[in-house]
Amino acid sequence: MKTTSCLRSTILLAGLLLAGAAAPTWALAVPTVSVIGDDGQPLPMTAGQAVTVRNVRAVVRLSYPPPGSNGRFTFDLVDATGKSASRGTSFTESCILQSGVAFDQNLQYHGNQTYQAVVKEYAPEDTSCATPTTTTTYGLTVAARVGIAPPTRPFVLSYPSVKGFPLTVTNNPGANLNEIHYALNGVVGPDGDLVAPFRFRLASLEDVGEATTTTQLDTTKPGRYTVVARAIDPSGSFSLLQPYRGDAASPWTPAITVVAKAPFGLTTSPVANFSDFTGPDYTLSVKVTFPGTPGTVSIGIARGKAGGTFRSLGTAKISSAGTITKRIRVVGNGKKPYRLRVSYKGSAFYLPGTQILRTSF
Fold it and tell me: Which residues form the signal peptide (predicted)?
């Protein structure tokens, strides 16, 4: 009887030892996952939930508490379609042993959406990371955007160096380019972009951390311009000579209107130009600085280099090519100084102005 009891105890002890030998000698540690926020500070991420940032180059950081464990893991960022969205080195094929070292995964922006940081854990003997024991996802919503605001007053184009008008853009964190589309009397399409034809500008940001940038939009014509903008952050090669067609772009801003006006001026100022020099009848021929200036001008004449009263010589129409032609009669000996006054009352997008031309009759 005593022998039987001892035998049972021995069998029980052996069973416990065998059970202990079969139990895993490792345990999965709980990782800490965070994303570097728009202000450069880490934001904690929780499994199954999403945090929102604007940074199109967000960095997701994963670390296991030291000394970690013998388990292995892989780490990747994917977009909403399941496509990898990791910029540069991906940890999906590394099959890394857990340790106290932090691993940074850089986001490759595929547009505004919710990305997933996917962490898969494996047994230590699974050196090829073929069979995950757990799969955990952490959501990252990227809501990139830029901002543009209409000027508080019309912009006046310059002459003779016509440079268009400036546009200030509030940048998005991480983006290295702003794309701007603008058109005279432009129309916005269903996707928020302008309906062709339009002009475009890809403005490179020298410092991706700067809050705002000002870009010059080239144009020589006054009028009412429609403008939209967005941030882009392409990863591969693309042409700066055509609009961007990839998916690494934020939504278009709401359209704004910029009014550009042209000042009145004459290309021959301050000297009068005549197409003939046989008096007493002369043909005044001058051009406005901005072709397309509509309407008429009034012309007056006064003797001397200064002072005196201008006598009206009537009006003249501005041609579609911007030419003003006026036949005038002046009786003189060719040596007396005169001044011609050419005045314009202005129109919707052309400012009023007066030019004084010097000559002699």
Answer: 1-29
